[in-house]
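Q: What would this chain look like folded?
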Amino acid sequence: MTDLPLSPDEKNILLRLARQSIELAVSRSPLPVLRLEEYSAALQAEGASFVTLTEEGELRGCIGALEPYQPLVQDVCEHAAAAALEDYRFQQVRPGEVSGLKIEISRLTRPVPLPYSRPEELPSLLKPGLDGVVLRGGPRQATFLPQVWEKVDSPAEFLGHLCMKMGAPANLWQRKVLQVSIYQVEEFTEE
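A: My prediction, written as structure tokens:
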């Protein structure tokens, strides 16, 4: 991370606010109005986050932003609510499900371009387990957080799944040079 790591207290505040935001969102209540001055400088600073929800170890929703555009504390609240209600891959979370959800927050560094000139070079430039990857091909774009590396066997498989998430054939990355950016995350979950 280019920024200083969050303290345990700051992480706990974000996790608590994420859960509160999900509870409010699924009950169709407005999210809390945050008084930014009550939070630390790190939580007030612009930050980009992804909030991932799992239920019994299975993905239940994941929404976030790649670039910072609002205070981190607000970013987490909005993405927690969106992960519960707006991830098109899943039914909306129902109020009775909230207590069974596990919340994971990923605070992102700014993505940086990863230049390369031949498709076969790309897998060797990625750092499994460390790099989050953004692929862009024409108007399409997709990203995987670094945590996705745990579910694949190789950079080639990672890139294939990322192409499919983008709505392209799995071998697109092998056929042409795509726009690629990488980022890292500070990731933390509820106990």
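The first helix runs from residue 8 to 26.
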